[in-house]
Amino acid sequence: MANNIFSANLLVGGSAGSLDDIDHNNVSDGDIAIVIDASNDKTYFYRYNASSSAAESSPDVVNPDSHAAEDGRWILSTTQSVASYLRDIFQQSTISGFLDKIGVQYDYLWIPAGAFTPTTTNGAGEHATYEFTTSDTTCYYLPFDGSTEEFADADVVFPPTWDRSTIKAKFYWTPASGASAGDTVEWQIQGLTIRNDDDIDGVAYTDTGEVISDTVLAGADSDLHITDKTPAVTLNGTGGVSNLVHLKVSRNVGGTDDMAEDAWLIGVLIEYKRTNEVTAW
Questions:
Q1: For residue 260, what are the contacts with CB-CB under 8 A and spacing of at least 6?
Q2: 3-state secondary structure of 98
Q3: Quick check: 62 and 20 in contact, CB under 8 A?
Q4: What is the per-residue pLDDT across 182-224, written as a single tens digit (0 to 9) for each?
Q5: Scanning 118, 128, 131, 251, which has the fewest C-beta atoms within 10 Å of its C-beta?
Q6: CB of 144 closer than 8 Å to CB of 213
Q7: Structural domain boundaries enclosing 37
Q8: Per residue in 57-106, pLDDT tens?
Q9: Quick one: 53 and 115 in the same domain?
Q10: How many domains does the chain have?
Q11: DSSP, res 254
Q12: In which element (H, E) is residue 101 found?
């Protein structure tokens, strides 16, 4: 998944708007921060190192105030004058270059379990709900069998900024009761795009898609599981603005998947690249 981008207008001091005031609970290893200090005509570029315990030494090393005694530091990558930074942004020759410079090259699309329909052939189980007893949190999910590969489909339309290229996915899921910590579940995704006047039944998947493995955590059925990102998924068909994107997900039973119990799919997070201008209808 792409790194998060944070912004600030001061380096240290703990006041609102300063780099060291950003809550470390919202930051992950590799995240980026851009600090524009107009009063000193400086733009600072930082990357977060979650394992660093280096002593704070502004501007080279900045320690978040929210966990001063723990590991995690903003490490300075480079500096640039404010004027030069802004000039670089607005002199980009392409929309892709502009978005990359301001750190919004990627975006996400959330598809909940309710948006997926079990296929007629070897379909996943029917949608169901489960209420956790302590928090009274109700989970809406789609169950996938542990012994037979089952499928579900969803139709989405990507925002017009999508670059019409490959995507990646993360699966949000939880095991049914009885699963053992250390068991493996494999999720699979494939997709295609369908244009106006295309034969819906005439666009075929080019391959079996991409697979990502996940391990059952210690809390088993009470734990939310979020997979790592899949490899890049190629969507067959001709990509275009307003195209229907048809996604098929399944549990890849038979590979390294060895969990006997159902896997409950809560939703899928799609990452896509933004490089296109948006044209009004």
A1: 146, 147, 178, 179, 183
A2: helix
A3: yes
A4: 999 999 999 999 999 999 888 888 777 899 999 999 866 778 9
A5: 131
A6: no
A7: 5-91
A8: 999 999 999 887 788 999 988 787 766 766 665 565 554 554 555 455 67
A9: no
A10: 2
A11: T
A12: helix 95-101
